[in-house]
Amino acid sequence: MIAGAAPLFGAVISMVWLAWSDEQHLGAGTRIWRMLTHPIGAIAVIQSLYTALLALLWMRYRVFKAPEGAEWPKVTVVIPAFNEGPMVGRSIRSVAACAYPKDKLEVIVVDDGSRDDTFFHMQHLRREFPDLVRLVRFVGNRGKRSALVAGFRAASGEIVLTIDSDSEINPNTVHEMVAPFLADKKIGAVAGRVAVLNRDTPISRMLEVQFTLAFDYGRAAQSAYRCVACCPGALSSFRKDIILPYMDEWENQRFLGRPVNHGEDQALTNIVLRQGYDTVYQRTAIVHTLVPTNYRQLSRMFLRWDRSYIVEGFSFAKFMFTRYRENNRLMPIVTFFVSNLRFVLVAVAIMELPRMFDTNVTSFVRATVALGLGAIFSAAYYLRFERSFRWVYGVLYAIFSVVMLQWILPWALVTVRDERWGTR
């Protein structure tokens, strides 16, 4: 959550810095005191301390290894699909090509009432891999949750791994997603690392850098205290026996009297956490997924995510003060409250935006430089994984997100009861 808001945090630091620069007539001590006693200055201090804490937690993160000689369990891979076309075939094929023992692997693909040729491609892969692939077809569109529920209930594996139908996994991904369960019986769910498959537009390239920060740095830090807040739909795995009893609750979830059709991944993560199990991140398990390529698709995706963030935030708040787990209860609470400072940050960013980019050339240059400095961390972290000039898109994303995306969270709050998925 916080990692994903890094550009916004950089923008707030920019505003504080601008305020500091505009009060040069005051003494340094006076300026520091005024900043600390101002709400925005206080938030900046809290965010800075929390960011430092995340860095310490991130350094403690370790990849999970299966014990020597461990017996690998049977795994069911569930792929829900809706109007995915040929891409669903690529997704199935990537699972079929994985290194996991085929006698301990099954793939259940659920067609959620597609109106295109998705089922045709599913049938083709079923004929190609008859001992591996099973198909389920809905007559009409019932939603991703219902498709996943059908897959969970039909699964014969001890571990259920879910991937999106617009995604491809690496050959070792299934092994890596199962290893944490063998390493620790307290682990109930595992989040994989989400990478970008399509990098052909400026927006998808910006997301490539941002995903590296949000989906690796943030989840690695959360994994250090065994409470990853959201195991992503693009790649997650679960112990089936702790999930099955809650299928009806999950499928029929309601919020403010309306059905909830988004955020199924975070809702499922909350169910695992509520039962006292740990949720962790496995960096070596990688999925490559298609991401938005234009502004309209991007804003829809973030709108879905923010609605889910609001709904599931309420769900987590219901049990976060209970003794739902034996250890590590404090950090999830801290993360919850610091993450929700984002609402204040967005409000301030919207109000201060005209001031940051006014007609004063000096103010404009200072604001742009400050935003760029706030994006350096994203770019530098991306370079840790891939030596590529595309780190520049991390800097561009910092500016783009502050200028073009700050309306999304307020609108998500206003339209949180809108159950439309908004992907197609």
UniProtKB/TrEMBL annotation:
Record key words, sorted: Cell membrane, Glycosyltransferase, Membrane, Transferase, Transmembrane, Transmembrane helix
One CC-aspect GO term: plasma membrane
Gene3D superfamilies: Spore Coat Polysaccharide Biosynthesis Protein SpsA, Chain A
Alphabetized InterPro entries for the sequence: Glyco_trans_2-like, Nucleotide-diphossugar_trans
Membrane-spanning segments: 37-58, 330-351, 363-383, 395-414
Pfam families assigned: Glycos_transf_2 (PF00535)
One annotated GO molecular function: hyaluronan synthase activity
Record's subcellular location: Cell membrane
Main location: membrane
UniProt key word Transmembrane: yes
Glycosyltransferase 2-like domain sequence ranges: 76-242
GO aspect biological process, one term: hyaluronan biosynthetic process
Membership in a protein family: Belongs to the NodC/HAS family.
Name of the protein this chain belongs to: N-acetylglucosaminyltransferase
